Amino acid sequence: MKLADDLLFAIAKRMYTRNMGQSEEMSDALADSDSYADYRRQCVRRVLDAAERYQVPYRDQVVLDLGCYDGAISGGYLDAGARRVVGVDIDEPAVRQAQQNHTKENLEFRVGSTTELPVRDESIDTIFCYDVFEHVACPAPILEQCYRVLRPGGRMLIGTWGWYHPFAPHLWSTMPVPWAHVVFGEASMLRVCRRIYQSDFYRPNMHDFDEQGERLADKFDYSTIPTDYLNKYLIRDFERVFDESSLDFRVHSERFSSKWAAWTTPLLKVPLLREFFTAYIWVVLERPPVGENRTQPNAQRRSADQAQIAAVGVS
To answer: Which domain holds residue 256?
Structure first.
């Protein structure tokens, strides 16, 4: 245990001090709160680029920003041409902050729950859910809620990643070593994060202080990342949940953008290897148009269709 921890600490310290292996998110986490807000606004462009690429309409649409947090992204959808935007999050203080800081016409924020969306049936054209779904502890009930609130033919765009992503634990500021949680295990990784956090070379960031401006003393004082924070789903787990929903879906896997990662493109088609080498997944889900009212999830309906085909073949 100590040998593994020491090895991981030595690697992390070298990568940290040389600024190697840091993703854009990690570099941002080391910046101040204003820079972080700027980064979040840039995320709007990433979502809208994906919406254009995968044909998810948002202009002149009623858009639901699922997991809006403090609303830093929501207003960007309105500025980009959405007719109305409704932000929903389970974090009540964050929603209150959004309501105070983002006061635009046709922009509103509501508090939801882990199983309910405070939105009327068939009142939403498009749902955006960016960098949120890996945090949803129970995705199935939320997907059914999304089906309920979408109008027939409405679409949902989810941007997320699987648990074998090299930086899936969201520990940008303390753990620059890719796949540390897979190779060394969560407990070892978190012990090393504590050592780095307490080291002289560590640069505190905006997430290391409480509301009074005091640096947090008990950070990383746990042995595993709780699943009510990260659900630890692999890509195949997400696909299973999507398949069990009433929404049609298609998963688009993207490789890492570095030129050194070009060789990984074929690996995204290999079920196990894609878990490690997929940088991000965009998932497009659609409520079937009028006339295709679904009473069964995809998987059940497909089984029934196969059974019917088999019965016809026997007769």
So the answer is: 33-165+234-314
In whole angstroms, give the CA distance from residue 15 to residue 32.
21
Assess contact for 109 and 98: CB atoms under 8 A: yes
Q: Which residues contact 87 (CB under 8 A, 6 or more apart)?
A: 64, 65, 68, 71, 74, 95, 98, 107, 108, 109, 110
Which pLDDT score, from 0 to 100, does residue 312 have? 34
Residue 121 lies in a domain: yes
CATH code (residue 97): 3.40.50.150
H helices of 158-263, in order, are: 180-183, 186-197, 235-243
Q: Give the 3-state secondary structure of residue 250.
A: strand
Domain contains 220: no
pLDDT tens digit sequence for 201-211: 888 877 888 88
Is the distance from CB of 279 to CB of 165 less than 8 angstroms? yes
Instruction: Flag whether 99 is in a domain.
Output: yes
29 DSSP assignment: H
Domain count, the chain: 1
Which among 196, 172, 168 has a CA at the least distance from the CA of 181? 168
pLDDT digits (tens, 9 = 90+) for 245-278: 999 999 999 999 988 899 999 999 999 999 999 9
Q: Would you say 160 and 239 are in contact if contact means Cβ atoms under 8 Å apart? A: no
Q: What is the amino acid identity at position 8?
A: L
* Over residues 122-150, mean pLDDT: 97
Is residue 247 one of the residues assigned to a domain?
yes
